[in-house]
Amino acid sequence: MTTLAVPTRSPRRRIRISRVLLSIVAIVVALVWVFPVYWMVSSSLLPNVVLTSTKPRFFPFGGSLDNYEGVMSSGFLRALGISLQVTLIAVVCAIIFAFLAALAISRFKFRGRRSFVLAILFIQMLPAEGLFIAQYKMVSTVGMLNTVIGISVLYIAAVIPFTIWMLRGFVAGIPAELEESAKVDGCSSVSAFFRITFPLLAPGLVASGVYAFLQAWNEFTIALVILPKEDMRTLPLWLRGFIQASQARETDWGQVMAASTLVAVPVIIFFLIVQGRLTSGLVAGAVKG
Amino acid sequence: MTSTDATTPKSDTTKGVKRKTHVTPYILILPASIMLLVAMGYPLGWQIWASFMKFGLRQQFGAPPDFVGLENYISVFTNKTTWGVVARSLIFCVANAALTLVVGIALALLMNAVSKAVRLILQICLLLAWAMPVVAVVTVWIWLFDWRRGVINYILTHLGLNFSSFNWLGTSMGLYFVATVIVVWMSVPFVAFSVFAGLTQVSEEVMEAASLDGASATRRFVSIIVPMIRPVLMIVGLLQIIWDLRVFTQIKMLQDAQMPLNSDLLGTYIYRLGVGSGDFAMASALSIFVLIITIIFSIAYVLQLIKEDS
Amino acid sequence: MKGKIAAVALGLAAALTLTGCAAGTPTPSTTTTGAQNITFWLIGNDTPQPLRDYLVDEYKKVNGGTLTIEEQTWGDIITKLTTMLPDAANTPDVTEIGNTQSPTFTNVGAFADISDMYSTLGGDKLLQSFVDVGKVDGKNYTLPYYFGSRYMFYRKDVWAAAGVTAPPATLADFNKDVVTITENNPDAINDFSGFFLGGQDWRNGISWIFANGGDLAKQGADGTWTSTFSDPNSIAGLTQLQDIQMKASKAPSTAKDQSPWLYINDSDSVTDANGNVTDSTSLAAATIMAPGWAHWSIGDLTKDATTGKDVRTWNDDTFGVFPLPGNDGKPAPVFAGGSNIGISAKSSNQAGARQLMEIIFSAEYQTMLGQNGLGPANSDYVSSLGSDEFAKALIDSASNSKLTPAAPGWAGVEASGKLEEFFQKVADGGDIVSLAKEYDDIITPMLNQK
Fold this sequence. Notes:
heterotrimer; B: MetI-like fold; two-stranded antiparallel sheet; 1% strand; globular; C: alpha+beta; D-Maltodextrin-Binding Protein, domain 2; 2 domains; eight-stranded mixed sheet; 17 helices; 38% helix
């Protein structure tokens, strides 16, 4: 905690003992944090008989991909497809709608603005565990049970409040004059937006996109009632079903861990794609807000 | 954050852009409002309605519900179990939110203090933890804490502590401990990245100057860093409180593994009343009650946010 | 053969639909319904694939429509039934339901009245304790699907090494033997249980109440239910149970009845590529109690030749079974596992659903259930279980088995977790008389809640 400034440009470059200590601490923390992930992947490569031993095996020597074969053949790809559709729709719609709303509350003063802001802050405090019955009735009445659209609408509504709040900071951070001046220079309203405002917003969109992505990707309690059909299961539902089926006899930890790993992989890929923008997005939204 | 060399002619109206009509903001919030209304309006309305009815499984299967006024609320209020659950939930929420924030900030400071290579390792590890889907996370942790073959018992026992066959999920305290480990483990990456992002905005020159002036590390932290990252902390803090107060998946999955006495928190309690026992009216009344508690609990926070907003 | 049975079933179906109309049931006229596509929910993976295929094929023959079987899980079935059974557009036409969940759903009108089919589907030959939980005001709504009574699985080798060479003859013997085995602990294993019984495992634990003549609840003349933990017979059973929990079982007091077979399986060793033993897995228990189908999960770990998956293969030298003996030496009354089956009241395919019921209760399907180790609903076909030790233990233990009370609020009692609480507190050594009184007071009003 002693050297907070990035020291490379400092004329007094002192390699302090504390620095070394901090590095060691950081490595230890990193290892502790990654251990469960490592354990999941390592176990997914081992046969069940090794995993049920009293002596844990810390390295997957002699491992194989056998567990993955069993997992892949039990409907993973179909569930992946459903999850990708649901998440894509939820993220894209949530971001567009939230951006428009964020524009309204950060650029305009209007009657009802404060109520709107309060509403979006409070609405996310309602416990979801009591809503199933009503949500089911609603979705079923309009015939949207077991449809990607049905569940997506609920997800969009679930992530929109926080997304608006997040984007509000970014929009406020971009001087409106910038866009105006572009228009003065002869750009149309639309092209001014896309050439000036949009690039500045990109990190914010990424940050809120990550949030919406994780919410939609992980959710399973609403999905359980809205997507009851087996071939409409999203990945978390599929994983849960896989675990429950395994537990009915004797939990096959190797396969359960392989299944968990497979569900995590798309998220990691997504993170790798957006990682460059992610941190800068978090910064701007937070500090300029 | 960007080059603003497009120096704009200062217009008379410094407050944004003046539009001719006042319809624009309403059009802009329309899609979001419609989504919220469509998806939340009916369920919320139904919940409020049901909370004044006698609505159980029989009504769910078509029997007409009776209006019972405030009866459900009165039984929620006068039920000792409810207050136990509320108290436990509040404690769990505060402890988890605080722990997450403290560890998150500490890790952010750590990231800021180490060399680029070490920082990258730490960031990748945190990112991997963050990317784990919650069902997978809880499954892995349950296995790590397993009383017979859990790695954690194995390691602790080999460190000379007697944790052989120690059943972590055998008591509600143990279950909350495991849940806290899981929640903190999952939530810290988000806090750490957000705060770290905020820290990179703190100008080096300011820090150097403060350092030269002889300000201690603690002092620099309190008087320079905290104010700079305050907006991050505010929003992240509010989120943690909301999330941790309505924590459901982690507790439910742990309870499915083993369920010690008195281990319900608000989320699982509402679920047990509603879907479990088929008393949807009570579950609704309790949900509304929780909404009110959350609002009371966070009102100061929200007002502060609103103030900083305008 | 198949064709013949199908023809018989068809004839029966026709006869039934006629009587159905005559009896004036709400069923729409079914004489010329044509093909109906119906959905059937099975819970868990107990029903093997060949049986599912048989149902689909037969239904196609009888009705012409398509039968879709959807597998649900026990963990989520209440949620699914609560939301979808009242929803005419999405309800399954026929569904399996846990026998303890049946009273609650039949009482609220979730199932169609099938009293008129009762005698055709087996009548008094059907397992009566299961029929009772599907009955309201003398009408039949759900009927037994299959049963799997609970009996004991034990490690012959460990029992012998501990000096107990024969299975117990009476309940008192059993109670004594498992304590002896725990104390002798022949392999000197840490936390070894002579009899592994989870503290919250009320489904197995109530056997001691039943075996001593006690019951969970009884119905008064006015129709209301009363919880009866405080009954002297129940207290006697609970006292024995507490003794076992304190002296013979090292299971966590929060453990439920999930996969107890793990604890008697694990005597396997781990070998490396050259076949050398590198590790051993721990054996935790000498005895467990589980429903009959658990025997598929008990045995030596081997590789299945076709699928390459790890499977358990029963080994007669190591493992044995016996029904829990009662005080008189006959099999004790134990809690029967299994489930019921019924037609959704909201189903618009009543005719097709009824045809499926006929197929399920046909001689051929009942026999198939038995051949797969699932106790058939109709006692005429119990012989199909075969004559091996599992069949014998299953039939013996089922001869005297009981179910949870057919009270309208029973599912609510289960969902509340109060039974787990009570049994855990008993297992932890609490004062039985005061606990029994406390939980009677809690459970009685829940029993009568509709």
